[in-house]
Design brief:
The structure holds two protein chains of two kinds. Chain A is an all-alpha fold. Chain A has a domain at about 1-80: NADH-ubiquinone/plastoquinone oxidoreductase chain 6, subunit NuoJ (Four Helix Bundle (Hemerythrin (Met), subunit A), Up-down Bundle). Chain A is built from seven helices and no strands. By secondary structure, chain B is mainly α. The termini of chain B are far apart. The model of chain B has no long low-confidence stretch (mean pLDDT about 90). Classes of the chains: A mainly alpha, B mainly alpha. The interface between A and B is large, with 87 and 70 residues.
Chain lengths: ~170, ~100
């Protein structure tokens, strides 16, 4: 096994375990912490995919900003023990499990039938691939309009969040 | 080298786990976290194909997904705060005003 394969299986196992902990834990704070761990290991997977910029953004934006927001809301609403629900097999759980398993089965059979495309993997990528410089050049040339639209979206989200969450303006 | 397939299967597993969480969990906050998991699975797919094709467009798409996820988290959590203030609960089994 190459180093990449070892790291892929290690990070992938940690990602799956973390996601399972997010779903399984009773306490919302534990779910949030498991999600932070999942995001860190996903950042490792992004590094394996030669996407260092996205890996840094993943840690900064997801594990940093978004999860801090989640934890603030959990703290604000003091929801720590809100979900008292035993490990019963309710109808919705069974149906949800069946739906998720069916989708997983469909996806995996399709994906594993694809020829294992190792064409581009064999060759190292160009030196510029995945760097902040090349991503910035792409965003400011070819995708400059979506970039501006998305900044407007963030502005609307900020204003909207204040308007919705504030009890009295 | 790890083939692209394996990354895609990992993304599929992550997506299905997120979907399972959205379907079975009753706490709206945890449902939001599971939606973030699904968005990350989409990002992983984008990046896997970007590496396979040696094309940076996948990175730009993943960047936009991250931005939209940030906006979605801000708005969604604000809505949850407003709902909690008016209902006193975040159990999605008990928030059913729009059913009638």
């Amino acid at each position: 096994m190459t180093v990449e394969a070892v790291l892929f299986w290690a990070f992938g196992a940690c990602v799956v375990i973390g996601a399972a902990a997010v779903i399984a834990s009773r306490n919302a704070v534990n779910s949030a912490m498991a999600l932070v761990a999942t995001f860190f290991f996903l950042a490792g997977i992004y590094l394996l995919l030669w996407a260092p910029t996205l890996a840094v953004l993943q840690v900064l934006v997801y594990a940093g900003a978004i999860m801090v927001l989640f934890l603030f809301v959990i703290m604000l609403l003091s929801l720590a023990e809100s979900e008292v629900q035993g490990g019963r097999m309710t109808l919705s759980r069974v149906l949800g499990g069946v739906a998720a398993a069916a989708l997983l089965w469909a996806l995996e059979t399709t994906l594993l039938r694809l020829a294992p495309v190792a064409r581009a993997m064999a060759t190292a990528p160009a030196r510029q691939f995945g760097t902040l410089k090349s991503l910035g050049a792409l965003l400011y040339s070819q995708y400059v309009l979506p970039f501006e639209v998305v900044s407007l979206l963030l502005l609307v989200a900020i204003v909207g969040a204040v308007v919705v969450a504030k009890s009295r303006i | 080298m790890v083939p692209t397939n394996h990354y895609l299967v990992l993304a599929a597993v992550l997506f299905c786990m997120g979907m399972f969480g959205v379907l079975v969990r009753r706490n709206a906050l945890v449902v939001f976290m599971c939606i973030e998991l699904m968005l990350n699975a989409a990002n992983l797919t984008f990046l896997a194909f970007a590496r396979e094709q040696q094309n940076m467009v996948g990175h730009a798409s993943a960047f936009f997904v991250i931005v939209v996820a940030a906006a979605e988290a801000a708005i969604g959590l604000a809505i949850l705060i407003a709902v909690f203030r008016s209902r006193g609960t975040l159990n999605i089994g008990e928030i059913r005003t729009m059913k009638h």
